[in-house]
Amino acid sequence: MRKITINLNGETRYVYVEPNDVLLDVLRDKLGIKSPKSGCERGDCGTCAVLLNGKSVRSCLILAIEVDGQEITTIEGLSKDGLTPLQEAFIENNSFQCGFCAPGITISATELLNKNPHPNKEEIKEAIAGNLCRCTGYESIIEAIEKVAKK
Fold it and tell me: Which of 18, 21, 69, 99 is the most exposed place for a label (fewest CB within 10 A)?
């Protein structure tokens, strides 16, 4: 086991990990962060997405030991001071049904809006292309992101 340090949602956290521990499992099982979900476990569905130094990554594909000394933001971190305008737009648009994909899509859309505050529809589609939603067909998700981008 090795002790690593992570800036998790703005707080310095220390955790002991094995060399083969996956970041998703460490976040969920050792650090109590439940928003990243275990979906496909091979990076296809995007439900395990987190921001690593501001970039959306699939936490099921990253070893926890690789993030030693880095910054990770999850939905818990994004909304620690209340819902973000993006999250409010998702609620207003009834963007999600079961909600399983919501954390990953929120992370991907947050990354997009941080880089490009006024994306067009094609840029939005491209940004969330790696996130699978089985319920809504994406239109209400895209409309919510467009609503925030127009503000």
Answer: 69
